[in-house]
Amino acid sequence: MLIALTSYIIIVFVVAWATTRKAKSGAFFTGDHSSPWFVVAFGMIGASISGVTFVSVPGEVATNSWHYLQFVLGNLVGYQIIAFVLIPLYYKRKLISIYSYLGDRFGNITHRTGAAFFLCSQLLGAGLRFYLALSVLQVVIFKNMGVPLWVEAIVAIIIVWLYIRKVGIKAVVWTDTLQTLCLLFAVIATIWTIAQSMNIECGDILSLVSQHHTFELFDTDWRSASFLPKHFLSGIAIVIVMNGLDQNIMQKSLTCKNRHDAQKNLVVFSLAFVLCTMLFLMLGTLLTAYSEHLGMEIPSMTDQLYPTIAQYHLTPFIGVCFVLGIVAAALSSTDSSLTALTTVWCVDILNKDVESADKKTERTKSITTIAFAVALIAVVLIADAINDRSVVSTIFTLAGYTYGPLLGLFVFGMAKPYKVNEKFVPLICISGPILSYFFNIISPYLLGGYTMGFELIILNAFIVYSGLYLIKK
Description:
By secondary structure, the chain is mainly alpha-helical. The chain is built from 20 helices and no strands. The protein has helices spanning about 1-20, 25-30, 35-50, 50-65, 70-90, 100-105, 110-140, 150-165, 170-195, 205-210, 230-245, 245-255, 260-295, 305-310, 315-350, 360-385, 390-400, 405-415, 425-445, 455-470.
């Protein structure tokens, strides 16, 4: 296992070195605007599949069937909106950080408020995704070796820092392609091995999946959090906010040579992402069927289903593939987050000319990257100290609330011609998540049992949009 893990990390470094050794000044932030669109598209699949998704989506099939696909189909629509509405806006203004738009449109206070919300959300979200991936590796490998989680976290973040420290997003774009390959290979190998273990021919896999009781695509219960219309519409809103208004994801698209390449990247990526999600859902059905075949009870925490079967009920090769898939998902998510955090701090908060080659700018970039790397480790250690999954899930949810104000700011900026009284903008942006959170608590009592789902982010954005309208000049 350790040999495979070490070999994979060496390959990541080789790919990073081979593809970035001729990088120019500013490549850390812009990738020299030379990334092939198809490479970005393929790599974005891995970046979108965090370690949480890698184990959670297949596990959730046991309890929520294929309802997640409703959300992903909404994502597909959302990506088209990003490609044909936001991408032209970003390229027209030649943005390095997408939050610079808020500065151009409203002013410095709004600019920094939007950037601050991104920094908080990304730091919490990336740190928790990193922690959940490391905790899986801790159970599977390192706990038995006597390696504590804090050592694992430090070593992992040093690995990420080493291959992005000079050229940042340029290294991320190319290493993400390797990590996507590893993720997809792990899933396909697991599907194949389960089919062989159950004596299912390759051509019969689809038949088994379509006839299994978990193969239910649509949820028609209006009170459910995954009710079809709200799941679909939430999928559109979430992907616009957490991708189109997220520097982490958009920074990759902005490394393409021009607007048309960036649009092709997003259209092709969105279609590939739907297919890959269906692959994960298919794996979830097969994991459930295989556990029934073994007479094994589905874990109450369904996240444990894939790790348990991969490590204890399939071949050692699949165990290795699973571990490499988790590592690939963790690195792919963390490297791009660390690069985006550094970019937003330098561009939006410090207002640095990041394409400058002077030593002061380089030093600032290096110090900022190290500081955020330490901050990510701190989030991991805090999450581990809490050691309460419900609390960690709550923090994860709260991190998602901070994207609502960004949606409200951008929509108001593009839909209305008004300037605003900027001194009230931070207060309005803070009120959105707080009011949304309390509405989420009381909605079952006010709305006859209706449970809010991902659509909360739309409510959050509406509150911020309304507040901005009230303070318009």
